[in-house]
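Could you join me in thinking about how sequence relates to backbone shape in a protein? We need material for that, and I hope you will provide a protein of your own picking. Once you have written the record down, we can walk along the chain together:

…
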Amino acid sequence: GEDIIMKFFTRLMKAEFYSRPNRFVVEVRQGKKVFPAFLPNPGRLLELLLPGVPIFVEKSSNPNRKYPFTVVGVEKKGEPVLLDTHKNNDVAEYLLKQEKIPGLKGWKIRQREYSLGRGKSRVDFLLEKGKKEMLLEVKSCTLFGEKVAMFPDAPSIRATRHIQEIAEEKGYAGGVLFLIHSSKPKWFLPDYHTDLVFAQTLLKLSQKIKTIPVALTWKSDMELSDQVKEVQIPWEVLKREAKDQGGYLLVLNTASALLLKGPRLGPFSIPKGFLVYVGSGQQTLSKRVARHKRKRKKKHWHIDYLLEKAEVIKEFLIRSQEDLECLLAKELVKKGCPIPTFGASDCSCNSHLIHFEENPVQKRWFQELLEYYQMDRLVKE
């Protein structure tokens, strides 16, 4: 049948993403004018908020607000993605009432924002079906590649606590609904690269809590289509991969050109600008990355000497049972300028340190590389 469309926003304007001075404020551009807007989303959103991408802002009807504009969505490859997490539960309520959520047909909303009691969280929905009751938590998922979506895109102790509390409540069924704000993904996984504890908790509670990921379609003017697609969870991939081992990328910044030399080292001539270092930790990946960020340590690897002088601006973990370190290095060498033999004394690679004039994190190719290695390579159709 014909798509039914639901409007959640009224005073919409389109602009371009310009910058994100802090977690809850972005600067957007319209023509020559740059102005701030409130961003109701604590996520990293690095793959969405790239320079110049189209962004949707809504003008507030309240003249006394600090920021008259709120960011409600962003376009990724021509498809709108909801960013306003405050609207996420309104979307869930609408879809529940329309009986559009697979696995939740016949459940009615008894209460929104249901409190579990003193010192505990509030759950997004209390549902009922005859004599049965269900506690339902709703999560907004905006991290996706071509085939796979993941949540969360930033570590979330809160998300882990919510699902643990729901599982512990006696007398209720428990559920977590992931609203994926894209029609593309066919698969969903908790993001064990970013939040291993959340992923392992969801896996451990998978018999107690119903996990329901669905893919939504937002139309060109941020109107919601009522087409809802069920998304699969490849639990066996999660069981295999959600362990603290794999590869990592450190993005570094050097204020000036460096010459590194020392015992068993170089000399290496390092230009100023941005660097990406590729490494791996086959036992405890998180400890390896934490060690890199410590200022005081015995110098053992090439990177230890560089980290005395360069600043780590971002780190990306790619947890994996497969050794991806050299594959990642080869991909990065295609795009940047390798520092010969750096970090590659025990493999046949040209280099594991690659120089870039501009910050690669703000480039689409870099985000697509991460999307492939963290998400899409996991499922073979």
